[in-house]
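Hi all, long-time lurker, first post. I run a small reading group and we've been trying to get comfortable going from sequence to structure in the token notation. Rather than ask abstract questions, I figured I'd post a concrete chain and ask someone more experienced to write out its structure so we can walk through it together at our next meeting. Sequence below, copied exactly:
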Amino acid sequence: MLTRRQLAAGAAASVSLAQPPDRPWDLLIRHGEVRDPARGFAARADIALRDGKIAAIAPGLEPRQAREVINATGLYVVPGLVDLHSHIFFGGGSVPSIDADTVAARSGVTTWVDAGSFAHDNAPGFRRYVVDRSQVRVFGFVYLYPANRDPTADPIRHARASMAPTAAVIANHPDSLLGVKVQIGSNMNGRFSPEFLRIARELCDEHKLKLMVHISDAPPEVPEILSHLRAGDILTHAYTGHGTSLCDPAGKLQPGVAEARARGVVFDLGHGLGSFSFAEARKCLAAGFPVDTISSDLYARNIEGPVYDMPTTMTKLLHLGMPFDEVLQRSTINPARIIGRLPGMGTLAPGAPADLALLSLEDGEFRLVDSLRQAETAKRRIFCRLTICRGRRLLAPL
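-- Answer (accepted) --
Happy to help. Here is the structure in token form:
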């Protein structure tokens, strides 16, 4: 019988803990439909875990060789989900964040990226109290404009004064800090947005850092924003229903969008409270422009809707016609490669980190709501049954 803690985490059924302690594998997941988009692997197989890594993957692995066995019949066993845009920092940030481990246990996310909930002045706290204390893997982008500032100070001078300490803190934490985040839009940093973008570009060029750019209401317009982005940079909120649409009203891609992708700019979903539109997503998909990465932009104000979690966000792309394997690719290996800090992340190859999600594809009628409060009914949903990180079952605190 499953315990309350296992049920709270959506655990897969048929768990045995009776194996002797001298077995070579710590955990064996049997009879699952394994999907590993990074390797094009799609087959029913068993996966053995040992010492926090994938030890073996093949059909018919011997259960007596494992200390613990999970029956994954009817479930998809996939790499742990990687959420490239979330907010999980506590203590001084401007965005009300969530607890990484609690949400991960029920959602299949084994790697979170905090997209600028903190600036350089709070980055050490992010490392000490979030990265180092979480069971899951956590990375972050540093926000260009510190929250702890004199409100009477000139914003441009203040942002420029933040360049050196921002670069220094990222250099001091290269294993957890990925680059710089900046918010661009008339409703975000207003008339200062273009200059903030130039400052961020200058900073990232000088120190060879990734730049994540939040888009929202114009101005500035999409072509101007994209002209500042280089290979490896990330434009997030790609399907926003606000003024910076990737498509014109006729459904044609704006100038510079295809060219930006061709030179290596990453287009990220970043659902959030106000940044995902079914109508905009349909226009972009019809124009042949799927996002490169699927992310939730999850925080306290949208965890009860319309975002909820990564599987719900993935379900929206599935509902819009993206094949399941492509949804997985954009939620696992694509964001893992952008992070680029851990060999094998986002895959199920032998020797890779033992980060996995056990997912079900369920038929029915499921209400989905976008950030403009437009509701649609999906016929299938993606649901997480179990999260495994670093080779261990992740259980939500009760």
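A couple of things your group might point at:
Residues 1-19 have pLDDT under 50 and may be disordered.
The chain has twelve helices and 16 strands.
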